[in-house]
Amino acid sequence: MLVNLSSKEFINAVGSNSPAPGGGSVAALSGALSAALVNMVINLTVGKEKYQEYEEELIAIRDKSIELQERLTRYVDEDTQTFNLVMEAYKLPKETDQDKSKRSAAIQDAMKKAAELPLEVAKACLEVMRFSETVVSKGNTNCLSDGGVGCLMAHAGLQGAVFNVQINLGSIKDEEYKQRLTADIEQIEKEAEGLSKKVIAIVKSQF
Amino acid sequence: MLVNLSSKEFINAVGSNSPAPGGGSVAALSGALSAALVNMVINLTVGKEKYQEYEEELIAIRDKSIELQERLTRYVDEDTQTFNLVMEAYKLPKETDQDKSKRSAAIQDAMKKAAELPLEVAKACLEVMRFSETVVSKGNTNCLSDGGVGCLMAHAGLQGAVFNVQINLGSIKDEEYKQRLTADIEQIEKEAEGLSKKVIAIVKSQF
After folding, report:
1. Do A143 and B22 touch (CB under 8 A)?
2. To the nearest 5 percent, what fractions of chain A are helix, strand and coil?
3. For residue A19, is the peptide bond before it cis, meaning its omega torsion is within 30 degrees of 0?
4. Which residue among A21, A29, B44, B158 is least enclosed by CB atoms within 10 Å?
5. Looking at chain B, which residue has its C-alpha nearest residue A141?
6. Rounded to an integer, what distance in angstroms lies between the CA atom of residue A136 and that of residue A188?
7. By three-state DSSP, how is residue A173 classified?
8. What is the pLDDT of residues A73-116, one digit of tens each?
9. Full pLDDT tens readout for chain B, 207 residues
10. Contacts of B83 (CB under 8 A, 6+ apart)
């Protein structure tokens, strides 16, 4: 599994001459790191008298952000797996008409999976961004920049995942499906853009 | 060393109740991953006839971006090391006036190191962003989204590093030093903002 490689090995694997792991897995990793930063800030806030009024809210977020951290960590490998499914579909025989039709259906099927996985990454990153707003506003002020970096990493993961949805949609023929996912990512990007500006402004105002 | 932990272990270490590793090391990791993505796109472009006219330019970039990938990987650990130096300085005795003056000088010294390391991270990420513009314009179009994610990760790393410069500058008393570093980061952020918009527009225009 990719996430069992050391960070150094993973970086080297990305930088190699193999197309996988690539931007999709890196986007998921960025999301996992963002959720971890949110969790760290909550862990360093809960139990401190100064922040007692926010304790219940922060604990409720942590229950969700731990799950997001674990899920986004799994997506690092799942993104590369769906990419490999697409590569395998392209390698199917294309000699007879039946072959061609089978291959084409397999490619379309794999492409849909390869578009849906980064859509899930983007949705999970958006949730982390919402939580990052809470931690930079109500979390331990000693961790202000950590919460801020959490927001940046979630936004980069989200935008990177959206690139991966879009590039795969380019090969999908089902127009209704394309329109549905395109509408989804537009909405996600819009909310993310607003959250990013808001969180960066909160962080910068406190330096 | 942090970069010898598996990605999964590193994510869990960030998400724990320890303040280190935190946003500074994550920002450096984001930069290292961005340089790796640039390198991957170059590796999957060089040698292909279709891109022959850009080959020389891309190889020249790769010579530098491999060094950036290695340097940013080292910064992952160095950022946490400088953070620990600050923590150690705060633990110095403060009983006598001489203690207090020694401790204060040690804190200021450690704070400067803790501001300068993320400044180096930000500068390195800016270089990667410049290279990402070239790879999304002249690199293998099959890797368009990878080059795009490279730009996003470099920008997140840069902005996260800038947060870490700023938070440490808040504890530094040397006004001339503060002004110099503040001017540096303003210039870096401005160029990065422009590059980010440009690269995202190039990527999105090709989907």
Report:
1. yes
2. 85, 0, 15
3. no
4. B44
5. B167
6. 21
7. coil
8. 999 999 999 999 999 999 999 999 999 999 999 999 999 999 99
9. 999 999 999 999 999 999 999 999 999 999 999 999 999 999 999 999 999 999 999 999 999 999 999 999 999 999 999 999 999 999 999 999 999 999 999 999 999 999 999 999 999 999 999 999 999 999 999 999 999 999 999 999 999 999 999 999 999 999 999 999 999 999 999 999 999 999 999 999 999
10. B19, B20, B22, B24, B114
For chain B, how big is the Rg over CA atoms in Å? Answer: 19
Short-list A172, A177, A18, A25, CA closest to A110: A172
Question: What ipTM was assigned to the predicted interfaces of this complex?
Answer: 0.98
Contacts of B87 (CB under 8 A, 6+ apart): none
| Residue found by looking up tokens 């853009």 in the block | A193
A residues 22..51 contacting B (CB < 8 A): 22-24, 26-27, 29-30, 32-33, 35-37, 39-40, 43-44
Name the residue type at position A56: E
> What is the SS3 assignment for A67?
helix
Q: Residue A182: what pLDDT?
A: 98
Residue A173, token pair as written in the block: 């023929």
The minimal CB distance from B7 to the residues A5, A22, A39 is found for: A5
pLDDT digits (tens, 9 = 90+) for A37-77: 999 999 999 999 999 999 999 999 999 999 999 999 999 99
d(CA A172, CA A170): 6
First and final C-alpha spacing in chain A? 40
> What is the model's pTM?
0.98
> Rg of chain A over CA atoms, in angstroms?
19
What is the structure's pLDDT at A36?
A: 98
Helices within B3-96 (DSSP H only): 7-14, 23-43, 55-90
Å between B145 CA and nearest CA of chain A: 6
Tell me what pLDDT residue B29 has: 98
C-alpha distance across the termini of chain B, in Å: 40
Both tokens assigned to B91: 């633990």
The single residue listed with the structure tokens 């060089």 is B46
